[in-house]
Automatic annotation (TrEMBL):
Organism of origin: Paracoccus yeei
Coiled coil: none
Protein name (Swiss-Prot/TrEMBL): RidA family protein
Pfam families in the cross-refs: YjgF_endoribonc
Keyword Transport set for record: no
Family matches, as InterPro entries: Endoribo_LPSP/chorism_mut-like, RutC-like_sf
Domain Endoribonuclease L-PSP/chorismate mutase-like, residue spans: 4-128
Organism ancestry: Bacteria, Pseudomonadati, Pseudomonadota, Alphaproteobacteria, Rhodobacterales
Amino acid sequence: MAITPGLYLPYRHHDGLLIVSGQLPLVNGKPIFTGAVPGNTSEDQAREAAELCALNILGWVSHACGGDLSRVRSCLRLGGFVVTDADYFNAPAIINAASMVMNELFGEDGAHARVAMGVASLPFNACVEVEAMFTISAGDADA
């Protein structure tokens, strides 16, 4: 299954605000874990997927910052979506894995507001999707 581009940008930078579109747990363009949690994908696998989403976010942040992550001033917000079975109510515990990536990488500047919710489906049957918002300082590419 090939992932086709949508009618949106992977990120948008405006006046020091960097918004990164929702990222799926993709490796080589394919989702590594699919289906609902915990029926098709275990909680541990879903946490691994959320961590990969966060790393994919950071890839776009790095791209937007010309490879210089020291330009990140703060992670303002994460939005996390987990495909869940109807009787599963622990999506926040899955998205904690993405939050931990930001907190570990940026320290206090990684503390963020967040939403974490269970949903019926995500693109390409991925089990998790995470989007983010950051503040970044100006760099040479912005001048």
